[in-house]
Amino acid sequence: MSRAIGALAGLSAFVALASAAWLAPRATPRADEAGWTLAEPVLLPEERTQGNARWREVSCAQCHEEIAREWGATLHALAWEDEVFQDELASIRRKKSCHGCHAPLPLVGTDLAQRPEERPMWRHFGVDCRACHLDAEGRVHGPWGAPSPGHTSVQDDAYAGAGSNALCISCHRVSIGPVLGIAQDFVDEQLGARGLSCVGCHMAPVERSMAVDDRTGEPLPARAGRSHALQTPRDPSFLAQAFALATERTATGALLRVTNRAGHRVPGIEDRRLVFEVTALDAAGKALATGELVVSRREYLAWGESRELALEAKGVTDLRVRATHDAPAYARPVVFLERELELAE
Ligand code: HEC
Ligand code: HEC
Ligand code: HEC
Ligand code: HEC
Ligand code: HEC
After folding, report:
1. With contact defined as beta carbons under 8 Å apart, do 73 and 229 qualify?
2. What confidence tens digit (pLDDT) does each residue in 59-108 have?
3. Residue 269 and residue 260: Cα distance in Å, rounded?
4. Judging by beta carbons within 10 Å of its beta carbon (0-12, 13-18, 19+), is residue 132 exposed, middle or buried?
């Protein structure tokens, strides 16, 4: 606990000053090398689109405004205030067991095999910048160790590519409440050793200025880093990328094969449900047969797993696929994928 208090004391040097004067142009994300298109998430109106309204109050936003804006729109920034979390929390008797991951003290330098300790203050910032970057001495850990008037920076390989897996895994490995510890799949399948990383799929690569010079207000020269706007299944176009779809002709009709491309099982929350509605069509576009393939907590798709749906009909030329997603935040399922796939000859 004394370490934790030290980390908080080290923070008093930062004054919460949101600089409205300078607004960075939005960085242009690129597709990464492994075939994933990682772009600024576009959330559905059904989703928690507002983000954390107080993101500018995070002291780091004074010099890292664009990063703070990105973080502010994620569930990390909402991890405490999120209604879905608060509703669930209300029904829990030992509430303290829920606090550590949803409003943590800094994790850097702590034993990542243990659950994070709860933060006694500023809980409304959820999983904040400090949780991931600050050590007990109040130093900021990052990929470069670049000099900064805001803090002492420490170069740390835990902020370069696969180096950060351990940080993400520490909170995402545990199954608790409605949460399935999907990062355990990543560990069990040794995906780190296969060159995969959490940030590789969830934080888009960007090249841009990472901070402003707080004396002149000028952006510092661009560097290559990653967006803090997490790639999320709340964005239909990212969710759709979780699945590779393939078709095949069979003796009696056709089949659709759905393969999980994510770095872990799908889904990771108990009450999420993905339904693939498949229609077999003939050359004139007439529906010949329909079927449904469900991915849910019970019928989950493990890492790399495929599932098939066979439809029986004569003269099938195409399969039409429409997939919907239902989650605790939604009033009704939403469509995340619509595609027509031609059968190979
Ligand atoms: C969930 C953990 C997490 C949170 C929360 C988080 N970061 Fe990061 N941050 C990372 C990781 C991991 C990297 C390294 C990404 C990479 O591989 O380049 C990083 C990189 C950075 C960098 C270096 C530039 C870059 O893009 O690589 C800066 C600056 C930074 N973060 C600032 C912030 C600020 C400011 C906040 C709060 C608004 C914040 N971070 C919140 C995990 C986090
Ligand atoms: C070990 C860390 C950890 C602890 C402790 C923890 N959570 Fe979570 N919680 C998470 C993570 C990580 C997620 C995000 C899971 C995901 O999206 O795959 C999450 C997400 C949630 C969500 C889902 C919100 C949504 O968007 O649908 C709810 C609800 C929730 N937690 C409730 C609880 C409750 C209740 C407790 C205490 C019994 C608790 N959590 C304790 C890590 C934790
Ligand atoms: C007074 C301005 C200022 C404040 C406040 C500030 N930073 Fe920085 N930060 C910088 C500058 C400048 C750099 C260097 C950027 C560069 O060289 O591209 C930097 C770099 C970083 C890096 C990269 C470190 C590395 O490895 O080089 C991280 C991570 C980071 N800041 C996180 C934070 C966090 C978290 C906070 C809030 C607790 C914060 N910063 C507050 C100005 C600031
Ligand atoms: C301190 C614990 C903690 C750490 C460390 C952490 N997460 Fe999370 N993460 C959470 C919690 C809690 C939630 C869900 C909050 C909720 O739904 O209320 C979450 C949500 C997410 C989501 C869903 C985001 C959204 O906006 O829909 C993604 C993706 C994610 N985390 C990836 C990562 C990655 C990648 C890392 C490592 C860079 C990481 N997390 C590190 C606790 C953590
Ligand atoms: C190969 C790409 C890939 C890798 C590697 C990967 N993910 Fe994911 N992740 C995805 C995709 C795609 C989804 C959307 C599918 C879904 O909704 O479950 C997703 C979903 C999630 C979610 C939301 C799950 C839910 O049900 O709410 C969290 C949280 C998450 N990932 C965290 C992580 C963490 C932590 C790691 C590293 C241990 C990681 N991911 C590694 C691609 C990846």
Report:
1. yes
2. 999 999 999 999 999 999 999 999 999 999 999 999 999 999 999 999 99
3. 16
4. buried
Which pLDDT tens digit goes with each residue over 253-297? 999 999 999 999 999 999 999 999 999 999 999 999 999 999 999
Nearest-10 Cα torsion for 112, 70, 57, 111? 0
Per residue in 216-249, pLDDT tens? 999 999 999 999 999 999 999 999 999 999 999 9
Contact 295, 259 (CB under 8 A): no
Residue pair 342/330 in contact (Cβ under 8 Å)? The answer is no
Residue whose token pair is 């000028």:
218
Q: How many Å apart are CA 99 and CA 86, to the nearest integer?
A: 11
CA of 74 from ligand 5 middle (Å) equals 14
For 293-332, letters b (16+ CB in 10 Å) and e give bebbeeebbebeeebebbbebeebbbbbbebbbbbebbee
Q: What is the token pair recorded at 331?
A: 């009033």
Tokens coding 327: 């989650």
**Can you tell me which atom of ligand 2 is nearest the CA of 329?**
27
Closest-CA residue to 212 (of 22, 15, 84): 22
Whole-angstrom CA distances from 223 to 103, 153, 161, 209, 210 are 30, 16, 15, 6, 7
The pair of three-digit structure tokens given for residue 106, joined into one six-digit string: 């800094």
Among protein residues, the one whose CA lies closest to atom 15 of ligand 4: 79
Rounded Cα–Cα distance for residues 128 and 100 (Å): 12
Structure tokens at 151: 């803090």
Please list every protein residue whose CB sits less than 6 Å from any atom of ligand 3: 14, 59-60, 62-64, 129-130, 133, 140, 142-146, 148-151, 153, 155, 210-211, 214, 220, 223
CA 284 to chain centre: 41
Higher pLDDT pick, 233 / 48: 233
